[in-house]
Amino acid sequence: MLRAMHYSPLVNHLNEAPVSEESSDEDDKECETCRSTGANESSSNSDLSAENTCRPPGISNEDSCEPILSEESKVLLGEQIKQISMHFPPRLTACTWTLEYSTMKHGTSLRTLYRSMHGLDCSTFIVIKDTDGQVFGAFCSSPLRVSDCFYGTGETFLFSFSPELQVFKWTSENSFFVKGNLDSFAFGGGRGIFGLWLDGDLYHGRSHTCDTFNNDILSKTEDFFVHVMEAWALK
């Protein structure tokens, strides 16, 4: 049930304190881009072949204002992509998703994830499928990065398909949106626990109910193991 409102240069950060589990609180218009009035069939086909993006499975090219993916997600189905994108800020509902990091392509390393995000200036979307088959993750208004303290904005949220989509928005209780270092990163906090926490190997994770989002536990149990993780840049 959906809760209403209620996918380098790291050396300088090597001395930052770990984010451990015991840390303290801190749019009627046409949207087909390849059509042009009066163009002949050959020209249209040529333009379409030049496309370097794709609609997710389950979403037709005739659908307007839908996200476009740089490649197919190995975690989310087309309908799930459509559902979750409805909760993005309005400026991002028809954005392009670019896969910046995947454990299936890049291995399991938080350092590699940070490198893939370096230089980006856009919102990001993290989605995880754990070894129990549960799908969950987070939307962040900025790229993941090494930080001394929590960062982000009230647009940040957590979500879970369990199996129906649940979205956990900011409660205004605190501003503990995102924090990370070379050993782990976390979303949401309060009273020494995190809404979503992952270790430096991006393999072991943990989820608790936290004050920032008042979320349910995202995984089936508090502790989980990552099967696939993707990090998307939303542009």
Automatic annotation (TrEMBL):
PROSITE patterns given in the database record: TLDC (PS51886)
This protein's name: TLD domain-containing protein 2-like
Q: Coiled-coil annotation: which residues?
A: none
User: Which InterPro entries does its entry note?
Assistant: TLDc_dom
Q: From the UniProt annotation, give the residues forming the signal peptide.
A: none
Q: Where is this region: Disordered?
A: 13-64
- One of its Pfam families is TLD
- Ranges of Polar residues compositional bias? 34-52
Q: Which residues form the TLDc domain?
A: 74-235
Domain of life of the source? Eukaryota
